[in-house]
Amino acid sequence: MGYNRVTPEIIAELVSIAGARNVLTGQDQMFPYSHDEVGEDKWRQMPEVVVKPENTRQIAQIMQLANRELIPVTPRGAGTGLAAGAVPFHGGIVLSLERLNRILELDRDNMFMVVEAGVTTGEVQRLAREEGFLYAGDPCSADSSFIGGNIATNAGGNKAVKYGVTSHHVYGLEVVLPQGDILNLGGKCVKDVTGYDLIHLLVGSEGTLGIVTKTYLKLLPRPQYNAVLLAPFKEMHEAIAVVPRVMKQSGIIPTSIEFMDNLCIRSAESFLERELPSHEAGAYIIIELESTTRVHLEQDMETVADLLVENGAMDVLVGDNPATQERIWKPRRVLAEALRVTSPVHSLEDIVVPMSEIPETVAEIQVIADRHHIKIACFGHAGDGNIHATLLKEGLTDTEWPMVRDRVLAEIYEKVYARGGTLSGEHGVGAKRKEALARFIDPTKLNLMRAIKKSFDPNLILNPGKVF
Ligand SMILES: Cc1cc2nc3c(=O)[nH]c(=O)nc-3n(C[C@H](O)[C@H](O)[C@H](O)COP(=O)(O)OP(=O)(O)OC[C@H]3O[C@@H](n4cnc5c(N)ncnc54)[C@H](O)[C@@H]3O)c2cc1C
Fold first, then answer.
1. What is the pTM assigned to this prediction?
2. CATH code linked to domain 224-428
3. Does domain 103-221 have CATH number 2.40.10.10?
4. Percentage of residues in the chain with pLDDT exceeding 90?
5. Which residue from 43, 209, 236, 374 could staple onto 283, CB 3.0 to 4.6 Å apart?
6. Cα(206) to centroid of ligand 1, in Å?
């Protein structure tokens, strides 16, 4: 696709739309917008201009201009993505949603929050909590990621096992389409089958079909009581084998069921500069439980703790107040940053398999790691089969790393697909997994996705080079 360059005349037009303070052209100013949280240099690209519109109307005008001039536009939330989805590989305009950061309404009667796309997930969670509600979307990046970015990637996170992923909480959207039309979908109705479900086509479309500007989020009643259990296991295979057992045998759906291997425990320990309990363990399992009564919570805790011990847990530590819970959760939440410190060059993956396949999949990853003499740290959302296998460059030369990484990834993906899994559970395809997706996707699905893209974006100017 032949795109045009951003000229001084186009910059002048952008200034007249969004105001001079919202148009960045200096290399230093634009550098933070040249990458997301994917570590390697390969996944960086400077924009030609960064624009930070203040409202939906300005975004519509920018899209009309970009269409007329055939300039690529890359929407950007907080840039915490792990698939290089917000990186402008074709140059052009990076359109940052950071100024659309208003909470518009908290409707207590209907239990909805209406917010702009640039509000952080953590802010939505906090406000809901203060008002006695729960916003159940909970990626580990909640304190920094934007709700619009969560919608674009259909973010998962820690509570997906009980409450589902972001799409389960989104009932309405305001979206600017690639040619500049403003589209309103859904709202506060909890049922709506009036025509195609375009909301859930847009959720997870990774900024390739439209720019999300506003959303209606469903709130839930806040469970009054919760507890977090930390169970260290001597061996990784024992820890991971307990996950399907807890889900099947306990009769309880935990809010979260997470795991981290010894490499992760050690990385978190050195990142947090504090000794973690049983740090020699092969793996940790972290389980969060919630209930509306203290009695029920205590019964559930006992059932799950017994199951953990029967299946080999070395110990079960309980976090029953915000401070002790945070001490258990913190090492899990910081893992993406901690592994970056352990091995600045790495590849954080996002495979997902049916829950019953987790033990075999994790064992197969270890066999592949040993065969290629590479360290692979494993952690993730065990309750929903989502494994963040993280390949570390540590010990490999600059020449060996890309070859070993690609070979190892190809072997992991083969195993994952053979077990009924897929290559991304929550981070998305972006630019990073586009080639791998092309190898595994059903051609009929690919053609359908291309046709949908073309009908939303005939000039292919919105986030080109992503997904396919
Ligand atoms: C420490 C850490 C922990 C993480 N934990 C999790 C986790 O538990 N679960 C999980 O799912 N992810 C996790 N992530 C990944 C990341 O935080 C999520 O993908 C998040 O949803 C991205 O939001 P963002 O605002 O940073 O989006 P960005 O990174 O800015 O963009 C991501 C994609 O969305 C598009 N986009 C952004 N905003 C919009 C918009 N308003 N309209 C249209 N397109 C848009 C971009 O073009 C890009 O394709 C983690 C990342 C880090 C660094």
1. 0.96
2. 3.40.462.10
3. no
4. 94
5. 236
6. 9
